[in-house]
Amino acid sequence: MNSEGGIWPLLLFWVTPGILSQAPQASEYDYVSFQPDLGRQYQSGRFYSRPAQCVEIPQDMTLCHGVGYNKMVLPNLLDHETMAEVKYQASSWVPLLSKKCHPGTQVFLCSLFAPVCLDRPVYPCRRLCESVRDACEPVMQYFGFHWPEMLRCEQYPTEEDVCIAVHLPNATQAPRSRKTEVCPQCDSEIKADSLYEHMCASEFALKVSIREV
């Protein structure tokens, strides 16, 4: 399987979001051996102070621990050379993951923060990036953040090339989030009787008007 012809058909991953919990473990990727002799050069044209190595994904790396494989390449595809740097940078994306704005968010982010150990770097597909961006950027903007330049989707390969994709059953593209889940209580219907009951049970009542939620 170490020949180029044997590797290429295996490198396009299709991950069904509904069964991410059943994703293959790291041992099941052993058909493609990691090449430690890549030495200092891991990405084309880039050199690092440390040689590329395959390491365990630590349990306290909340973003990617349990993603479906146990080991990752360091330096990663975002040029983070130490595990401390990886964990620090990855932690800022955990809140977005909890919003569940797109079923492929974790796969997309972890393909960059914690890339699986293979002979060569495999980036997320451009379409995966675009669908995650389109679904999650409105959530980010609500909290004052924008889609970062380092995750610019145009830099990633199309699905005609070798890349990581997420297959959504019965859909030609990822569904956009119907509503930004920043205030679940706002979606609850409040009936007049319930409102009066709470008002009468309170010592104080405030009359306010809300422009926008």
TrEMBL record:
<dbReference type="GO" id="GO:0005576">
    <property type="term" value="C:extracellular region"/>
</dbReference>
<feature type="disulfide bond">
    <location>
        <begin position="129"/>
        <end position="153"/>
    </location>
</feature>
<keyword id="KW-1015">Disulfide bond</keyword>
<dbReference type="InterPro" id="IPR036790">
    <property type="entry name" value="Frizzled_dom_sf"/>
</dbReference>
<dbReference type="InterPro" id="IPR020067">
    <property type="entry name" value="Frizzled_dom"/>
</dbReference>
<protein>
    <submittedName>
        <fullName>Secreted frizzled-related protein 1</fullName>
    </submittedName>
</protein>
<feature type="domain" description="NTR">
    <location>
        <begin position="183"/>
        <end position="213"/>
    </location>
</feature>
<dbReference type="GO" id="GO:0030154">
    <property type="term" value="P:cell differentiation"/>
</dbReference>
<keyword id="KW-0221">Differentiation</keyword>
<dbReference type="Pfam" id="PF01392">
    <property type="entry name" value="Fz"/>
</dbReference>
<comment type="similarity">
    <text>Belongs to the secreted frizzled-related protein (sFRP) family.</text>
</comment>
<feature type="disulfide bond">
    <location>
        <begin position="64"/>
        <end position="110"/>
    </location>
</feature>
<keyword id="KW-0807">Transducer</keyword>
<feature type="domain" description="FZ">
    <location>
        <begin position="49"/>
        <end position="166"/>
    </location>
</feature>
<feature type="signal peptide">
    <location>
        <begin position="1"/>
        <end position="21"/>
    </location>
</feature>
<dbReference type="InterPro" id="IPR015526">
    <property type="entry name" value="Frizzled/SFRP"/>
</dbReference>
<dbReference type="GO" id="GO:0005886">
    <property type="term" value="C:plasma membrane"/>
</dbReference>
<dbReference type="InterPro" id="IPR001134">
    <property type="entry name" value="Netrin_domain"/>
</dbReference>
<keyword id="KW-0217">Developmental protein</keyword>
<keyword id="KW-0879">Wnt signaling pathway</keyword>
<keyword id="KW-0675">Receptor</keyword>
<keyword id="KW-0297">G-protein coupled receptor</keyword>
<keyword id="KW-0732">Signal</keyword>
<dbReference type="GO" id="GO:0016055">
    <property type="term" value="P:Wnt signaling pathway"/>
</dbReference>
<keyword id="KW-0325">Glycoprotein</keyword>
<keyword id="KW-0964">Secreted</keyword>
<dbReference type="GO" id="GO:0004930">
    <property type="term" value="F:G protein-coupled receptor activity"/>
</dbReference>
